[in-house]
Design brief:
This protein has 13 helices and five strands. By secondary structure, the protein is an alpha/beta fold. It has two domains: 168 residues, Nucleotidyltransferase, domain 5; 90 residues, no CATH class. A five-stranded mixed sheet has the order 3-2-1-4-5, with helices on both faces.
Length: 294
């Protein structure tokens, strides 16, 4: 009876309108669960965000047939079809299918590549004895608290120079690792355009990954879940309860102004006036013709 109630609650939640939610930040991630007999673990796709009021919002959960562009595309399209407007920044790992789906679904949003995932990618290409040094050098790139530069393009540029400097320093010894560091470098620094007080929360997607880890621990005792519906209902119930304790973000007056400026520049750019035709110009230039605005 309880399981049936959770299933009904999840299905109602998954169909709800999202047009009342306006997000500044949207986090996307997936985790794998065994939910079909005789099949390997399959992904469950999840989305959560931070609203313009700084509140956390558990936004979406659905099964995916792999982490392909089509699976993520269907997931994001469903969120849009239910009214979710474009966020300002989308934070995710570097899965190609996911990145492609983000760019198709929300082309105006900026995209932040999870710095923790990228660090793992880089360190995997470095010998164990040098990983501590490379790790320290990597995180020093993004240690911008000592800089007096305000968030924005200039701060992004400074971090970009640090990326180049690190790559130049280690390229001869660890070319594969530095090639990995330089890939999608714009995605590593997008968060630096946003309020400084948000930087440590919006530069990685590790938060929802940790919550997924708790979900996996709770389902491990079950082994394979009875089916897709049971799996989704249970995962949703755990995440929904956990989301009630998630911390939001502090919204300062300066931070709000910066976010409003970003929203105008990214999502609400001024419309260009249509160029006047030659015929209209000749008409306006006739002697005695007075424009309506004169």
């Amino acid at each position: 009876m309880i399981c049936g109630q959770i299933k009904d609650e999840y299905e109602a939640w998954a169909r709800r309108d999202l047009d009342g939610i306006t997000l500044d930040y949207l986090f996307l991630d997936a985790s794998f669960f065994r939910m079909h007999p005789g099949s390997p673990a399959e992904p469950v796709l999840a989305a959560w965000g931070i609203t313009t009021g700084g509140k956390p919002a558990f936004t979406g959960l659905a099964p995916g047939s792999g982490e392909s562009a089509d699976a993520w595309g269907d997931f994001l399209t469903d969120l849009k079809d239910r009214g979710l407007p474009s966020p300002l920044l989308i934070i995710s790992d570097g899965a190609r299918g996911l990145i492609s789906a983000i760019e198709q679904a929300f082309p105006k949003a900026l995209r932040q590549r999870c710095l923790i995932h990228r660090a793992r990618n880089v360190l995997a290409k470095v010998p164990a004895g040098m990983q501590a040094e490379i790790k320290d050098a990597y995180w020093a790139i993004f240690d911008t608290e000592d800089l007096k530069t305000q968030p924005g393009p200039k701060l992004v540029e400074l971090a970009g120079h640090r990326i180049t400097e690190m790559a130049d320093r280690y390229a001869a010894t660890y070319p594969a690792a530095m090639k990995c560091l330089l890939a999608d470098r714009e995605g590593l620094t997008a968060y630096l355009r946003f309020p400084a007080e948000h930087h440590r929360r919006i530069r990685h997607s590790n938060f929802i990954e940790r919550t997924f880890g708790e979900t996996r621990r709770r389902t491990k005792v079950i082994g394979r879940l009875p089916g897709e519906t049971s799996c989704l209902s249970l995962v949703w119930a755990v995440l929904d309860r956990a989301s009630r304790g998630w911390r939001g973000l502090t919204m300062t007056a300066d931070g709000l102004r910066l976010l409003q400026d970003l929203r105008r520049s990214l999502l609400e750019p001024p419309r260009q006036l249509r160029p006047r035709t030659a015929a209209a110009t000749r008409h306006d230039d006739r002697p005695g013709n007075v424009s309506a605005t004169a």
